[in-house]
């Protein structure tokens, strides 16, 4: 996730204080990984340095003084360009799952045991995401669906690879 571009998108909606940006980011995108305050303000500082946002004068508040950040035309342009670009299709042709299987085979270790352990971990995570999809708000349900589809593809790959382990072992060791 691109934090600077996400903050630009939130600022395009409306000028905001850093505190409000963090709150909105965490509510919409944090999902178990909230954005640290230090990262928010460091990112806003870089965006201001690069001319993508401007910070208003400090305003008194309930706590320390706050600055309201406003997106600039350069920030809007960069955000629109990013938004229009498709995300690179994942996964690449090299994955950690594949690497572990090949190394296990190369080293004479039990690749099938690793695949079984990985399958169990995927199934546990799928149960968690299924519960989230069933009980959570729509945003969580859509994110859970995305994760579930990726996990299902991994499980299909695990099953196919398990069925082909002997042939893969012969090819890897040749």
From TrEMBL:
It holds the Pfam family PadR. Residues 7-80 form the Transcription regulator PadR N-terminal domain. It comes from the Bacteria. PANTHER family: NEGATIVE TRANSCRIPTION REGULATOR PADR, TRANSCRIPTIONAL REGULATOR YQJI. This is PadR family transcriptional regulator. It comes from Kitasatospora misakiensis.
């Amino acid at each position: 996730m691109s934090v600077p571009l996400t903050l630009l998108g939130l600022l395009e909606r409306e000028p905001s204080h850093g505190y409000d940006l963090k709150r909105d980011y965490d509510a919409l995108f944090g999902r178990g990984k909230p954005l640290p305050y230090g990262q928010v303000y460091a990112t806003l500082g870089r965006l201001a340095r690069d001319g993508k946002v401007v910070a208003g004068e400090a305003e008194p508040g309930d706590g320390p003084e706050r600055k309201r950040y406003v997106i600039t035309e350069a920030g809007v342009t960069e955000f629109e360009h990013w938004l229009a670009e498709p995300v690179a299709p994942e996964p690449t042709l090299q994955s950690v799952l594949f690497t572990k299987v090949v190394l296990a085979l190369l080293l004479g270790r039990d690749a099938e045991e690793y695949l079984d352990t990985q399958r169990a971990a995927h199934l546990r995570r799928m149960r968690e995401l299924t519960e989230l999809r069933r009980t959570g708000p729509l945003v969580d349900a859509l994110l859970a669906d995305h994760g579930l589809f990726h996990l299902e593809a991994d499980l299909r790959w695990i099953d196919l690879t398990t069925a082909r382990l002997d042939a893969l072992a012969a090819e890897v060791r040749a």
